[in-house]
Each structure stands twice: as C-alpha cells, then as structure tokens.
C-alpha cells in the first residue's frame, strides 16, 4: 500500500502536489509542445520578413539568415521560385499543427490522469473516513466538493496554470524577437503590456463580485421556481397563482437588471481594452512607418513586427483574467484538502472471531453532556439469541454501532471472546458481525448484485437461497426481470419492507458468526417477521443473534431480552421471567397484545 | 392533457418558435445589427491603413500627409470602440431580455397547467425547462446572431476589398473556405457524440459519489469498500478513456484549422509574391492580403460555430415548445372566466360563498394517461360539515376522490356538484380559494414564518394569526425560531417534519376554508408532537366538510363515511361500526393499523 495520503495534514500546495502525482510529466510534455508551437509560429513572421525585404525587395539578407538563404538556393533562385518559401511556410504550418495537436492532446491527457486520480482518491478516502466524520458533514456539500470543486481545480491546472505558462512563454519569445528586430519599436509595444495586464486584472477581480451576486440572485430565482413547482398543490389550493407570478416576476426582473448592469461593465471593458489594443497597434504602425521612412527599419521587419504584435496582444488580455480567477482554485483546493486531511479508519487484518459478547459499564455520547447510553453491562453467551426492546431514542441502535466498531464507547469496554474490542481490528469485527440496519442502503445495480455484494463468486443458487431465507424471493420473482431487476437510484423503487429483506438476504449471504437485526424487520409485517426468524433458527443455529425491535412479537422468543429505557437497562430476562416481574416489559406486552372487543376475530357481529 | 412529447418537426432549428419573443425586442435587435455593421466595416478597413503606410509613406520615403493619416486612423479606432460598446451591450441586453421573457412565459403558463402535469413530468424536468433550457436558447440566439452577422459582414467586406485589389489572389484564399466547412461539420458531429457519452459517464460518477456518501454506513457494516472502489474506478477509467478520445478529436480539429489558416497565408505569400515581383501589386497590398486571409478563415470558423450552436439548442427549443404547447386538463369555459376571472385576474366581487355540500353524481373517471376507469357511476352525497375518510394500502389509489374534489381533474362522465351546482360552472380559482389542503409532506416556502402563515390569507390581522397558531399549539415552535419574522430556510429546512405539519395546519386554519382536504402523514413523530398534531386535526375539521386520506385510527373512527379503496376502486363504504362488523378489507386494514399504532405507543410511553 504505497501512495496513500500522508497521515499528517497537507497544505493546499501539498494537496495539489499529491493529486498531481502521475500527471506531472505529461503536463510538462504539454508545456514543451506549447513552447514548440510558440517557436514555430514565431518563425513565420521571420520568413515573411526575409521574403518581403530581400526576395521581393532589395534589402540585403540580414546576417543571421544569410547562411540559411544561401543553403536553399540564394535570393535570386527564391525570387524565381517563390513556391519554396510557400512550402517552407506550409512546413512550418504542419509542424505548428502537429505541436498544437500534441499540446492540446497531452494537456487533456494529463488532465484526465489528474481528474481520475482526484476522483478515485476522494471516493476511496470518503469510504474509509469514520462515520463520525460523515455525520458532521452534509451530503450535498461533500458531493459538491467532489464534483464542482474538483472541476475547478482541474480547470486551474489544465486551463489556467498551463495557459499561464503558455502565455508567459509567448510574451517572452515575442518580446525577444521584437527587441532583436528593433529596440525602440519593441519598447513602444511592450509599454502597453503592463497597462493592459493591470487593467484586465483589476477589472476581472472587480467584476467577479458582480458575477457572484448574479449567481446568487439566479439561485434565488431558481428556488422560487423550484418551490412553486414542488408546492404546486399548495399554491393552487390557496389560489395564490397571482402572488406567485408577481414574486417570480419581481425576482426575474431584478436578476435581469443585475446581469444587464454587469454586462454593461463587461461591454465597457471589452471595448476599452479593444481600444487600448488598437491604439497600441496604431502606435506601432505610426512609429514603424516613421522608422521605415528614416531607414532604421525595413518594410519586412515592420510587417513581421505587426505579426508578432497581434500574436501578443490577445493573450496579454487573457492573462489578467487568468490571474484573477486563480484565487477561486485556492478555495476549492482548501475544500478538497479538508476531505483528504480527514483521518481514515484503520481497518487492520481480517481474523476469525468467536466467543461471548460482554458489555462492561459502557457509556456513550454523540455530543458532550448528552449521554445516549449510561453504564450498560450485560453478557451474550456465544450461540444465544438476545432481544433488545426499546422505544425511539432508547439508545438501542447505538449499542450495535459500538459493537460493530463504528464508534468507540465514551466509557467502559466491550469484550468479544474475552478480548476488548479496542484491540480487535475493525476489519475483524465487521467481517464477523452481520449488522442489518433499519434502513440499509440499496446500491444501484441489479437485485442480484445487491444480494451478492458482500461475498465473492456467489452462485445463483446461494443468492436465491439467501433471498428465500429473507422471505423476499417471491417478491423478486414477481418482478418482470426477476433477480436482474435494476434497483436503486436509476431503477425500480422497492418498498420499505422489500428493501429491508434484500438487506437481510445480503447479510445472510456473508455467513457471519454474529448477526444483528437493528430494527431491520420494522417495515415487514408480523407473519413475515416470524417466518424469517423461523428460517434463521433452522439455518443459523450456531450463530449469536441480537434482535433489536420495538415489537414484543419479534423479541419474545429470545433466550434473553434486554429492555432499554432512556439509555439504561430497565429489565432483563427471558419472556416468562419478565412477565412474572410485572414491570415495564409486562406493561408493553399487555398493551401490544390487547385488542378491543370489536376487533376480536368472530367478536360482536 | 398529456404533454406534447412528439413535437412537430421544427424547421430551421425551431427558430420560428422563438421569433415571437424576438419580435417584442425588435428595436433592440435592429440596433444590435445596425451597430455591428460599422464596427465590422471599420475592422475590415483598418488593415488598409497598414497597406497605405507601406505603399505610400515607406515606399516613397516621405511623411507628407502623415498627420492626417494618423488622425484618421485614430478617429476610426475610437469610433469603432464606441460603436462596439453599443452593439455588444445591446446584444447582452437582448440575451437577458429574451431569457427573462421566456422564463416569465413558461412560469406563468405553468401556473395554469393542471397538477397532473407536475406528477407526470417531474419537478426536476420542469425546473430545467424554465431555468436552463431558456438560458441556452437566450444566449445562443443573441450571441450567435451577433457573431454570425458580424463575421459575415467582415467576410463580405474583406472579400469586396480584396477583389478590388486583386481578383485572382482573392480566389486563392476563397478556395480554402470549402475545405474549412466540411472539416468543421465532421468534427462537430464526432464531438457531439463523445460529448454526450462523457456527460452520461460524468453523471454516473456523480451518482457514484452520492451512493458512496449516503450509503457509507451500510458500506462499512458490509465491509465492501474495496468492491465499491473497483466499481467506481471502472467509471473513472471509462471517463478518462472517453474524454481523451473526445479531446483527441478536439485537438485534431484545432490543429487542422490552425493549419488551414497558415496555409492561407502561405498561398497568399506564394502567389502574391509572384505578382509582387512582377510589379502587379505593391508589398503593402501583399501584407494586407495576408491579414485578410487569416481573418476570413477565422470568420468562417466563427460562422460555422454559430451554426452548430443552433443545432445544439434545437433540443432546448423543442423541450421549451413542448411545455408551452401543453394544455391544462381542467379548463374553465369562457363564460366562467368572463364571470369569475382567470388565474391572474380573479373577479372576486362575483364570487359567491361556498357552503360545503358536495355531491358526486354518477361520476365516472379515468386518468388521462390510463385506459381503465377507476370510478364508474359513483354516487356520494357529502353534507356540509361531515367527514369522509378514505383508507387503503399504499398505492391503492386513494387520491382520486381528492383530485376530483379539488378539481385537479374533472370527471370523465357525470359531475361533482358543489352546493348543488356543477363544479365546472364556477372557476377553479373560486373553488381553490375555498379549499384548505394539507399534504402528507407539508410544503412550506422559504421566507419568514409570517409569510408562510399568511400564504392563504394575506389580509389576516396579527390577532387572527396568533389565534391560529395557538389553536394548533404551535406557539413553542414560533418561540424556538425566534418570532414570526424568523426565516425558515429553503423549504422550511430549519423545522422538523412535525413542526412543519403544525405550521401548515395553522396556515390552513387561518385561511378558514369551507372544505378541508387532508392527506395524513404516516411518518413517525414523537408522542408529544403526535398528540399535538392529533388535536390540531380535530380542531381543523370542526365545522367543515372534510376529505381525509386517513392513517390515524382516531381520524378514521370519527369519520362519518369511510371509503375503502383497493386497486383504484372503492370496494367498501360505510361507517366504522358497519364496516368492522362486515369483517372485510376494512377490518383487516384497521386491525393491522391498530397493531402498529399500539406497538409504537407501548414502547414510547
């Protein structure tokens, strides 16, 4: 297991570097290709320069190109055979096209490596973060981080950061060429660069506020619409269509006005910066013309100069926007870093587990000062069935979370086979305990996939058997596609009872020595409940079973019943003992089995 | 009704459907086009200054008339910038106004559509049509016509100038245009295909994150982290593969277009060079040609891009049109509208009070999307002040009667009489303003508590409001929230389900309707809240005609008439005592419900 996220917390840059692993070299290759594109595209004006001045004109070939020109036949030859130059240009174009392709392809390739790594790391990390971490974060927020924040970072790396490199290269190269040609003219051209850059940067930084405000207001408009559509019955029932129309209209108009204002600012920016760019172009033409007339510049040089300049000016304007947008990526990196900096659970090795379960003075609180369990002590002998009875908020589900190592007790200790569970690895615990939650998650996929999820190489027969034991086989066969029915987010919606029984079948497949039903029969009717328990008795004889319920029916046949009340054990014993005690269990028993005269079968007719 | 899913094939990308929205802003549209014209004309002319400078000043080594040249040049630049501001600003405005108007029309239209439309279409889709489809249409129509027009102007005027300078050279450049277009079209097609696949895979990934996060508890108990990792990794791998492929095509496209542009320059240099040597054209002209060659190829690309955008919004327009052409199931007759007004213009002065006698007279009904009658020759008289309870299993079709009472649908045959008159003789708004409707899932709007309470009766006094709150024992909720002006968050998400229910009861009481319709919730709330809700319901039903889709035993028992629904049809009717004696479906349902309620109460007391 190399390449795991380091234990210590990473800074934003550290997080980025960690995520960039594997894509850096490709990104660099893309930058190299980008540099080559720049070089090749800068050659074109040079060719034009020489052609215009020496081939078409009468200027002598400048020193740096004498050798090259004579190598391809000399000025006179070229004058007669201009196709050579055209061919040269085409060759440049081909090279440039090749490098353009490589730049764009490699950049995306690197970006995809990066995105894949980011997503994979996030996903696997999220699954291994402790439950307590998940409870502190909202699902929507985490998903947003994994999707849009990840996109923002990817845009930053492959778009902004790379453009930055590319544009800086372009600026540097063009400036070098320009300065080599004519220092004075180059000075005039470059004088505008800081001006445009600063203007563009300041503008984009300022307009970002407006964009944000517009986004927020669109959010408000969107909410109004959303609430109107979901609440359509309320709107109609109270006859408030007109009110709703006016509400939407008001926000719609406000939002439009806001955007129009922002767009006016944008239009102002673009036309003024166009203007500045055009003025810069003008200055070059004017000054260039003067220099040409003076004789300090050749016509070809001027044309080449104008070429360089057009190449230069657009990226400079973009640069301001890029720099200004970079701060967004910082925020996103921080948000993703927060997930990755969360400490994963240590799963350890899977080992077999057996023996009695014992709770010793166990207390637990999710929030400080609000104990959910108080000094719980009891023992479950191996192979026995224990029932836990309690109402909402009695702490019965918390018991199972502690046992499965999803949370650690605040005080006290739980022992399995005499070993404290703080010394048993979570992998061992969870692979030996089959915990069935009240609302177990049904994953998208087929029913078959769901039932066989936790075991490898399950045969169809095993799957069907498990479904039979969980009394859900008939329901499944009732679907048009049987076990291949797609369920979950994109499929058929199962009823609460069906979901619970699929969840049970899924756990039974695992054949664990410990089974916990955490209210996982609540949506199943009494007869099915009884049938499932009967199947268990037959097929899972040696297993230690904990059944948690608020139904007397479900727990009454257990070897031992624990009645939880307000986080404490109120009573325990088997059904007969507890009934004899005439305590809380007896009271619940009587209430649950009482039936008014009119409802008794064959009663007063 | 049924949404028009099969829209008639739209011609010209469905632009015709957008024309009415454009027509409103004719002036703006014309302003935009008129201002684009000079901008592009100037842009086309500017390179000529370069030519003039080279061919006159530089070639003749003179600066005579240079000042005039510079002033004219600068003036044109300035003019172009100013006009450019107006044209791009009017384009922005056009986009925003189109968007605003389309959203407004869709929203208002939705206020008149039947509730069944919302059930069959789904709120998410409706929302997307109002918010995002319109957004794509607005921006493409405005900006692409701007782009297309401005670039066409450029191409035409550049060609005109080029022809006037040298016809054959122009033809050389033009020869490239037919190459650009098919290349564009081909790549666009391929990209659209991969784009769709990438989007699909992306939504799989988002779904994966969602599943990983919401299912984390189950994942941990089953220790299937690695298996889920693998499934997720398979998706990210596919995503990478598809994206890389997509970008391979995109990169190739970039490379090819950049090559074509360079080729254009090469051709000009080659042929232009030959004729320059022969003295047919001057060097300045040659350089201008190179600029135009580049510009035209770019422009053709822009125009082609605009065209392909139009293809992409075709589907948006189709969806939008389908929404706008959907008609409501329940339409008031012109006579009724004449007297009672429509959704937005109620003529309350003509509204008579509603007393509350309801009669189903020989009503037969089938849902517009169903083929089977769910009611046949159904007769039922509900006297003012009596309660009808509708019971049955989940999904048995209990809401049909309620839908008819509320006129979410009209009967297929027969009539629903209200105070002795066919409901269709009076307006939907009139009926709705007399019905109080409380849903299974209470719906509150974001805003203050007060706004929500007064939703059904805006002119209620402070005392009336407080009285209503008091009558449902909701004062403590208001206290907890911090008064009537406290914000309750989007959809009331700062409130628990029980609290939302109580507030929605208070809202209904305040509206004081003659008819009260309640879809009782099955969700579990704690005992105290349950009692409060029970009391509130009793309070609400006093003195009104009530229709209740009932789950609570007490509500059911107290009803004057109980209707038992199975498979969409009414199979038993009578009072509680009568039906219990019958030992039929009702008896079974009631017994089951009795047990469930008993169990809940026994452990939670």
Q: What does this protein structure show overall?
A:
The complex is a heterodimer of chains A (605) and B (605). By secondary structure, chain A is of the alpha/beta class. Chain A has helices at residues 12-20, 24-56, 66-71, 74-80, 83-128, 131-136, 139-181, 183-230, 232-237, 241-294, 299-340, 396-403, 426-432, 447-451, 460-469, 473-478, 496-508, 526-539, 552-555, 575-581, 584-593, and strands at residues 357-367, 370-380, 385-389, 411-416, 419-420, 433-436, 445-446, 486-487, 514-518, 544-549, 560-565, 568-573. Chain A has a 6-stranded mixed β-sheet with strand order 6-9-10-3-11-12, with helices on both faces. In chain A, strands 2-1-4-5 form a 4-stranded antiparallel β-sheet, covered by helices on one side. The mean pLDDT of chain A is 87. With 605 residues, chain B is of the alpha/beta class. Chain B folds into 2 domains: 12-324, ABC transporter type 1, transmembrane domain (ABC transporter transmembrane region fold, Up-down Bundle), CATH 1.20.1560; 338-434 and 513-604, Rossmann fold (3-Layer(aba) Sandwich). Chain B has 21 helices and 10 strands. In chain B, the strands form 2 sheets. Chain B has a 6-stranded mixed β-sheet. Chain B has a 4-stranded antiparallel β-sheet with strand order 2-1-4-5, with no helix packed on it. In chain B, helix 7 (177-214) crosses helix 10, helix 9 (225-277) runs antiparallel to helix 10 (283-325) and helix 17 runs parallel beside helix 18. At the A-B interface, helix 2, helix 5, helix 7, helix 8 and helix 9 of A face helix 2, helix 3, helix 5, helix 7 and helix 8 of B.
The biggest sheet of chain A, with number of strands, parallel, antiparallel or mixed sense and barrel status, is: 6 strands, mixed
- Greatest chain-chain interface? A-B, 151 and 147 residues
- Alpha carbon gyration radius of chain B: 35 Å
CATH topology of the largest domain in chain B: ABC transporter transmembrane region fold
CATH topology of the largest domain in chain A: ABC transporter transmembrane region fold
Strand order of the largest sheet of chain A: 6-9-10-3-11-12
Q: In CATH, what is the class of the largest domain in chain B? A: Mainly Alpha
Coarse structural class of chain B: alpha/beta
- Proportion in β-strands of chain B: 5-15%
CATH superfamily of the largest domain in chain A: ABC transporter type 1, transmembrane domain
Q: How would you name the oligomeric state of the polypeptide chains in this document? A: heterodimer
Number of strands of chain A: 12
Count of runs of 4 or more consecutive helical residues of chain A: 21
Which CATH architecture of the largest domain in chain A is right? Answer: Up-down Bundle
């Amino acid at each position: 297991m190399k390449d795991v996220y380091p234990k210590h917390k990473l800074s934003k840059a550290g997080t980025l570097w960690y995520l960039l692993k594997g894509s850096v070299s490709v990104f660099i290759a893309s930058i190299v290709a980008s540099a080559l594109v720049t070089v090749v595209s800068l050659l074109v004006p040079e060719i034009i320069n020489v052609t215009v001045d020496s081939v078409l004109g009468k200027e002598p070939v400048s020193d740096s190109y004498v050798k090259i020109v004579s190598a391809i036949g000399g000025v006179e030859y070229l004058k007669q055979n201009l196709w050579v130059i055209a061919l040269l240009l085409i060759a440049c174009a081909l090279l440039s096209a090749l490098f353009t392709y490589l730049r764009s392809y490699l950049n995306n390739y690197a970006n995809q490596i990066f995105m894949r790594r980011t997503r994979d790391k996030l996903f696997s990390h999220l699954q291994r973060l402790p439950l307590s971490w998940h409870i502190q974060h909202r699902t929507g927020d985490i998903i947003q981080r994994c999707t849009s924040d990840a996109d923002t970072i990817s845009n930053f790396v492959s778009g902004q950061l790379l453009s930055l490199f590319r544009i800086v290269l372009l600026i540097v190269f063009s400036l070098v060429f320009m300065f080599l040609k004519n220092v004075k003219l180059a000075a005039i051209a470059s004088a505008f660069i800081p001006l445009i850059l600063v203007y563009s940067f300041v503008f984009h930084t300022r307009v970002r506020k407006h964009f944000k405000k517009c986004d927020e207001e669109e959010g408000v408009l969107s909410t109004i619409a959303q609430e109107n559509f979901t609440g359509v019955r309320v709107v109609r029932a109270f006859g408030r269509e007109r009110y709703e129309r006016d509400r939407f209209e008001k926000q719609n108009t406000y939002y439009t006005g806001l955007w129009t204002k922002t767009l006016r600012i944008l239009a102002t920016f673009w036309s003024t910066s166009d203007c500045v760019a055009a003025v810069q172009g003008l200055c070059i033409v004017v000054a260039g013309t003067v220099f040409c007339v003076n004789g300090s510049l050749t016509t070809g040089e001027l044309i080449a100069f104008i070429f360089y300049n057009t190449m230069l000016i657009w990226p400079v304007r973009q640069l301001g926007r890029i720099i200004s947008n970079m701060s967004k990526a910082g925020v996103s990196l921080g948000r993703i870093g927060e997930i990755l900096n969360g400490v994963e659970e240590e799963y350890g090795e899977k080992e077999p587990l057996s023996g009695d379960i014992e709770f010793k003075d166990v207390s637990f609180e999710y929030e400080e000062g609000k104990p959910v369990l108080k000094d719980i002590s009891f023992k479950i002998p191996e192979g026995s069935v224990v029932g836990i009875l309690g109402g909402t908020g009695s702490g019965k589900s918390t018991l199972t979370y502690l046992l499965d190592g999803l949370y650690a007790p605040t005080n006290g200790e739980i022992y399995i086979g005499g070993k404290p569970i703080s010394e048993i690895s979570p992998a061992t615990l969870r692979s030996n305990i089959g915990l069935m939650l009240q609302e177990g998650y049904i994953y998208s996929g087929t029913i078959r996939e769901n039932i066989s999820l936790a075991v490898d190489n399950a045969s169809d027969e095993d799957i069907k058997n498990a479904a039979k034991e969980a009394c859900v086989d008939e329901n499944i066969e009732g679907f048009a596609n049987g076990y291949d029915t797609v369920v979950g987010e994109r499929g058929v919606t199962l009823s609460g009872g069906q979901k619970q029984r699929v969840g049970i079948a899924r756990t039974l497949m695992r054949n664990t020595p410990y089974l916990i039903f955490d209210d996982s029969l609540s949506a199943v009717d009494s007869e099915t409940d009884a049938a499932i328990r009967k199947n268990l008795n037959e097929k899972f004889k040696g297993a230690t079973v904990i059944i948690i319920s608020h139904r007397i029916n479900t727990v009454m046949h257990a070897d031992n019943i624990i009645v939880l009340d307000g986080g404490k054990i109120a009573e325990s014993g088997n059904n007969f003992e507890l009934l004899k005690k005439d305590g809380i269990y007896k009271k619940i028993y009587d209430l649950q089995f009482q039936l008014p005269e009119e409802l008794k079968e064959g009663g007063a007719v | 009704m049924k949404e028009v899913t099969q829209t008639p094939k739209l011609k010209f990308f469905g632009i015709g459907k957008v024309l009415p929205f454009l027509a409103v802003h004719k002036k703006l549209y014309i302003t935009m086009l008129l201002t684009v014209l000079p901008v592009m004309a100037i842009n086309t002319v500017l390179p000529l200054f370069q030519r003039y400078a080279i061919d006159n000043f530089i070639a003749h080594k003179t600066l005579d008339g240079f000042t005039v040249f510079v002033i004219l040049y600068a003036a044109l630049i300035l003019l172009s910038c100013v006009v450019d501001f107006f044209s791009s600003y009017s384009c922005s405005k056009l986009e925003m106004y189109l968007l605003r108007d389309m959203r407004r029309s869709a929203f208002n239209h939705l206020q008149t559509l039947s509730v069944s439309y919302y059930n069959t279409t789904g709120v998410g889709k409706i929302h997307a049509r109002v918010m995002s489809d319109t957004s794509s249409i607005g921006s493409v129509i405005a900006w692409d016509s701007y782009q297309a027009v401005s670039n066409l102007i450029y191409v035409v005027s550049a060609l005109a100038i080029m022809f006037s300078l040298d016809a054959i050279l122009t033809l050389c450049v033009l020869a490239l245009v037919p190459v650009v277009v098919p290349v564009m079209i081909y790549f666009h097609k391929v990209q659209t295909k991969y784009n769709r696949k990438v989007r699909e895979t992306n939504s799989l990934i988002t779904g994966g994150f969602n599943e990983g996060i919401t299912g984390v508890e189950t994942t941990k108990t089953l220790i299937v982290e690695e298996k889920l990792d693998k499934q997720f990794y398979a998706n990210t791998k596919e995503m990478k593969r598809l994206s890389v492929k997509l970008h391979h095509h995109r990169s190739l496209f970039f490379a090819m277009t950049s090559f074509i542009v360079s080729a254009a320059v090469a051709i000009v240099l080659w042929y232009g060079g030959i004729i320059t040597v022969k003295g047919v054209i001057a060097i300045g002209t040659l350089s201008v040609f190179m600029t135009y060659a580049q510009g035209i190829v770019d422009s053709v690309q822009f125009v082609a891009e605009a065209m392909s955008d139009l293809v992409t919004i075709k589907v948006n327009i189709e969806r939008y049109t389908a929404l706008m052409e959907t008609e409501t199931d329940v339409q008031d007759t012109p006579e009724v509208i004449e007297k009672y007004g429509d959704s937005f213009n109620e003529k309350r002065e003509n509204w008579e009070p509603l007393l509350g006698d309801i009669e189903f007279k020989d009503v037969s009904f089938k849902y517009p999307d169903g083929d089977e009658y769910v009611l046949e020759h159904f007769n039922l008289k509900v006297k003012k002040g009596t309660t009808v309870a509708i019971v049955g299993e989940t999904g048995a079709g209990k809401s049909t009667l309620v839908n008819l009472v509320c006129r979410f649908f009209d009967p297929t045959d027969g009539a629903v009489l209200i105070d002795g008159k066919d409901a269709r003789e009076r307006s939907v708004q009139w009926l709705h303003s007399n019905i109080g409707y409380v849903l299974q899932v209470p719906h509150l709007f974001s805003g203050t508590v007060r706004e929500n309470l007064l939703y059904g009766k805006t002119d209620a006094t402070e005392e009336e409001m407080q009285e209503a709150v008091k009558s449902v024992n909701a004062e403590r909720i208001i206290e907890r929230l911090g008064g009537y002006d406290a914000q309750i968050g989007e959809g009331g998400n700062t409130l628990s389900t029980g609290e939302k229910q109580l507030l929605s009861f208070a809202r209904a009481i305040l509206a004081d309707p003659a008819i009260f319709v309640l879809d009782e919730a099955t969700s579990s709330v704690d005992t105290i809240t349950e009692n409060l809700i029970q009391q509130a319901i009793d309070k609400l039903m006093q003195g009104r005609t009530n229709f209740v889709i009932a789950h609570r035993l007490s509500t059911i028992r107290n009803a004057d008439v109980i209707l038992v629904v199975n498979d969409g049809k009414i199979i038993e009717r009578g009072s509680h005592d009568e039906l219990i004696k019958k030992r039929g479906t009702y008896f079974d349902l009631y017994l089951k419900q009795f047990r469930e309620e008993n169990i809940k109460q026994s452990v939670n007391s």
